Amino acid sequence: MTSVDSQPDLSAAEAVLGAHVRDVMDFPKPGVVFKDITPLLSTPAAFGVVVGALADLARGLGATTIAGIEARGFLLAAPVADRVGAGIVPIRKQGKLPGRTRSEAYALEYGTAVLEIHEDAVPTGERVLIVDDVLATGGTAAAAHTLLRGCGADVVGLAVLMELTFLSGRDRTGTLDVTSIMKI
């Protein structure tokens, strides 16, 4: 489990994030409220604050690799990895990676999907932080965790911008330590 000492103060990042996320109703399906981070991405200073908070978390956890979940997780994982001098591992939707892969099916808030990772994505014992934009039902995070552990990674946590607490996604992440900048 994550120690209190390794947790950065996320209050500044939470305030910035709250001011730079917009709700899109009925996307991608009726009844779903999509959390659009485009305003965050298009505001360099705001994006920098959020990336900085995630990088501080990664450093505190001793992460040597950052795993980004397709697609918006890629937008966060790459600059975090750059800031901490870590490698990056893409966790992709089915059929998007060449070569030998591991696959894991999971349920979404609005359907089902499959994630994949290269079989040799991380060396055994590599300290990996998973980064994504939203923790909703927890299916994506749980699948990513399973894939990384299957490669032999030491998954040190999951960091997300937003956690939709009403969907109880944290309950599906098992022993995975979850850090969310903002809870909704």
Provide the descriptors you would attach to this structure in a database record.
single chain, 184 residues, alpha/beta, seven-stranded mixed β-sheet, two-stranded antiparallel sheet, 5 helices, 30% helix
Structural class: alpha/beta
Q: Count all strands and give the number.
A: 9
CATH architecture: 3-Layer(aba) Sandwich
> Could you state the order of secondary-structure elements as H and E?
HEEHHEHEEEEHEE
Q: How large is the radius of gyration?
A: 15 Å
CATH class, anyone? Alpha Beta
Strand percentage lies at: 25-35%
The residue-averaged pLDDT reads 93
Q: Give the strand order, joined by hyphens, for the main sheet.
A: 5-6-4-3-7-8-9
User: In CATH terms, what is the fold-level topology?
Assistant: Rossmann fold
Helical proportion? 25-40%
Number of helices: 5
User: What's the main sheet like?
Assistant: 7 strands, mixed
* Integer count of domains: 1
End-to-end gap: 23 Å
Shape: globular
Could you describe the 3D structure shown?
- The structure is a single chain.
- With 184 residues, the chain is of the alpha/beta class.
- It has one domain: Rossmann fold (3-Layer(aba) Sandwich).
- The chain has five helices and nine strands; from the N terminus they run αββααβαββββαββ.
- The strands form two sheets. The chain has a seven-stranded mixed beta sheet with strand order 5-6-4-3-7-8-9, sandwiched between helices.
- The longest helix is centred in the N-terminal third of the chain and has 18 residues, at 44-61.
Q: Any chance you could write out the topology, listing elements then pairs?
A:
Layout: H1 11-19, E1 22-25, E2 33-36, H2 38-41, H3 44-61, E3 65-69, H4 72-84, E4 87-93, E5 101-108, E6 111-118, E7 127-135, H5 139-150, E8 154-163, E9 178-183
Parallel strand pairs: 3-4, 3-7, 7-8, 8-9
Antiparallel strand pairs: 1-2, 4-6, 5-6
